C-alpha cells in the first residue's frame, strides 16, 4: 500500500511523527509512506490553496518533503510532483495538535488536506488529538491517537469509501482528551456545534506602540449536542464523522425554490 501523509502543524510537529508510525503500520513492510507537509505551521488555513503565488518544495530525506504551502497544497504537490502521478491508496492528514470537532472543522487545515484528497478522488482521513487536563501535560499527549490510530484506520478501510458521488466521502476522526487506557470506544457522530465558542479578536499593543490583533479561540470543553463529535470526545470516545465537501444546505432547497416560484 502507498500512503501519502500531511498535516497543518508543520513538518517537525510531533503529531506528524505519530501519523507516520500509524501509516507505517497500515502500509506494512512492503508498502510506501510518503510525507509532504508544510515547512511551517498552517493551522487555521482550512482548504486554502496557493493559487496566486508559487511555493518552494524541499526534499528533507527519503520520501520526506516540505513545502511552503498549505496542507491542500501539500496534497497537490505530493500527487503531481513528488509521486509524479503515481496515485496513493490512502491520504492521511494529522495528527493535529488539538481537536477538529464541531465548528473547528470549518477552519482546520488538517481537514483541508483530507478534503483536497477526496476532491482528487482518493480515500482520505483527517486525524486530530483533543487536548485537556488529562493529557495536556503527559509525556505523550498524543498517546490515545498513537495507540488506537492504526486499528481505527483499518476499520475505516475495511468499511470502504463511497466513491459513487461527485463529492467523495472523507472522514474526520478526533481522539478524546484522555490517555489511551481511558478511551471508552468509538462513536460515529455528526459534526457538532459548541454554543458561545466562536473565534474573536483580542487587541494588543507592541513595545513600539503599534496595535496588533490576535485571533482568540473560545472554550474547547463546552460539549456539543448528544450524538455529535465534541460531546463524544469529552465523554472519552473517539469520534468518526463522515463528511463531504458539498456545502449545499439541502434541507433549505425546497423552501427557497417555493419562494421564487
Would you write up a description of this structure?
By secondary structure, the protein is of the alpha/beta class. 26% of the residues lie in helices and 25% in strands. The chain has helices at residues 14-27, 71-82, 109-119, 143-159, 229-234, 253-260; strands at residues 2-6, 32-38, 57-61, 64-67, 90-97, 124-129, 170-175, 185-188, 200-205, 211-216, 237-243. Strands 3-4-2-1-5-6-7-11-8 form a 9-stranded mixed β-sheet, with helices on both faces. Strands 9-10 form a two-stranded antiparallel ribbon. The protein starts with a strand and ends with a helix. The model has no long low-confidence stretch (mean pLDDT 96). It comes from Parasulfitobacter algicola. It is found in: Cytoplasm. Residues 3-195 form the Survival protein SurE-like phosphatase/nucleotidase domain.
Task: Kindly list the characteristics that best describe this protein.
261 residues, alpha/beta, Stationary-phase Survival Protein Sure Homolog, Chain: A, nine-stranded mixed beta sheet, 6 helices, globular, cytoplasm, metal-binding
Radius of gyration: 19 Å
CATH topology: Stationary-phase Survival Protein Sure Homolog, Chain: A
Query: Can you summarize the main beta sheet?
Result: 9 strands, mixed
Range of helix content: 25-40%
Q: What strand line-up does the widest sheet have?
A: 3-4-2-1-5-6-7-11-8
Q: What is the CATH homology-level superfamily?
A: Survival protein SurE-like phosphatase/nucleotidase
Mean residue pLDDT: 96
Point out poorly predicted stretches: none
GO molecular function, one term: 3'-nucleotidase activity
Function: Nucleotidase that shows phosphatase activity on nucleoside 5'-monophosphates.
Binding site for a divalent metal cation: 8-9, 43, 96
Family: Belongs to the SurE nucleotidase family.
Amino acid at each position: 500500500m502507498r500512503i501519502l501523509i500531511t498535516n497543518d502543524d508543520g513538518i517537525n510537529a510531533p503529531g506528524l511523527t505519530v501519523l507516520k508510525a500509524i501509516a507505517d503500520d497500515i502500509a506494512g513492510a512492503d508498502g510506501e509512506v510518503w510525507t509532504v507537509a508544510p515547512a511551517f505551521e498552517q493551522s487555521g488555513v482550512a482548504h486554502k490553496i496557493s493559487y496566486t503565488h508559487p511555493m518552494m518544495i524541499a526534499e528533507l530525506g527519503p520520501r520526506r518533503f516540505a513545502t511552503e504551502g498549505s496542507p491542500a497544497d501539500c496534497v497537490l504537490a505530493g500527487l503531481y510532483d513528488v509521486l509524479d502521478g503515481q496515485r496513493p491508496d490512502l491520504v492521511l492528514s494529522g495528527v493535529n495538535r488539538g481537536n477538529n470537532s464541531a465548528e473547528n472543522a470549518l477552519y482546520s487545515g488538517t481537514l483541508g488536506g483530507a478534503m483536497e484528497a477526496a476532491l482528487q478522488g482518493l480515500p482520505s482521513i483527517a486525524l486530530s488529538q483533543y487536548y485537556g487536563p488529562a493529557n495536556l501535560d503527559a509525556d505523550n499527549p498524543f498517546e490515545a491517537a498513537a495507540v488506537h490510530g492504526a486499528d481505527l484506520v483499518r476499520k475505516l478501510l475495511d468499511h470502504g469509501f463511497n466513491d459513487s458521488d461527485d463529492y467523495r466521502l472523507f472522514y474526520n476522526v478526533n481522539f478524546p482528551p484522555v490517555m489511551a487506557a481511558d478511551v471508552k470506544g468509538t462513536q460515529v457522530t455528526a459534526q457538532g456545534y459548541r454554543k458561545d465558542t466562536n473565534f474573536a479578536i483580542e487587541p494588543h499593543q507592541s513595545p513600539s506602540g503599534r496595535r496588533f490583533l490576535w485571533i482568540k479561540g473560545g472554550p474547547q470543553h463546552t460539549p456539543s449536542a448528544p450524538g455529535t463529535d465534541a460531546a463524544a470526545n469529552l465523554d472519552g470516545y473517539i469520534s468518526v464523522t463522515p463528511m463531504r465537501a458539498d456545502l449545499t444546505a439541502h434541507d433549505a432547497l425546497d423552501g427557497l425554490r417555493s419562494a421564487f416560484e
